[in-house]
Amino acid sequence: MSLADLPPLREVIARHRLSAHKALGQNFLLDGNLLDRIARVPGKLDGATVYEVGPGPGGLTRSLLRAGARVIAVEQDARAIPILEELSSAAEGRLSTVHGDALEQDEERLAGQGAHIVANLPYNIGTILLARWLTVDAWPPWWASLTLMLQKEVAQRLVARPGSDEYGRLAILAQWRSQPSVAFEVNRMAFVPPPKVTSAVVHVTPAQAPEGVAVRMIERVTAAAFGQRRKMLRQSLKGLPGALDALAVLGIDPTRRGETLTVEDYVGIARELTRGK
Ligand code: SAM
Q1: For residue 33, what are the contacts with CB-CB under 8 A and spacing of at least 6?
Q2: How far apart are the first and last CA of the chain?
Q3: Which ligand 1 atom is at minimum distance from the Cα of 29?
């Protein structure tokens, strides 16, 4: 069987008794047009490598394979593995499946430098994986781009601007050396079964990292500044050695609150602290 002759996803799900399990964050996408649209977000995939988390019955995987990608997919649900094996033979081996927990994989070793990450993520681990991919040490990172289906609320936090309610740690982690954008929103009724909330596909590409700033310092400063969101910086950053001096050097008023500072302000503070180490 070739990719063009695969049976409809609904039929495959029924034959393999892949009823959706809530604990595994299973909300499947069956609409081929929507899946193809997601697979177009990273750009041309012909000959590229894609790392997919949670392929489930393989709808998105089919679209990625049809776009010409080689796919390495990590799936925790044993029931999906035979389906993915069938898909692998239809794709003449361009799909390799790892049966396991995505949180425990050495992704860079599995997928290799320059792989695109594409996933309709299980929501229970979505933000953990996203934060992990955004905070890798080496930059540019091993991944070429992220194309992720997330809850709309998480997508808004990723692209949020200073002063908005959504602006916080995730915005700074996503914007200080990457460019995040919301590609499009997806109605909850597109999923089987429908989740409670609207989703959105986000696209993140790496940008030039500012000089002299350690990612661990960005993480520490933002954790402190937004851990106590409503507090003034002089209070929230008090426990971070050198942070109040850094505010003085940069001319940032310590009575301001963390949510009013720009991403560049955070980069400046982290740079001062990285230098002082
Ligand atoms: N990609 C499919 C689609 O678009 O229809 C399924 C998406 S569904 C939202 C999430 C998938 O992630 C499920 O197949 C689930 O079994 C899998 N999953 C959940 N937790 C996982 C984990 N820790 N590691 C790997 N896969 C996981």
Answers
A1: none
A2: 60
A3: 5
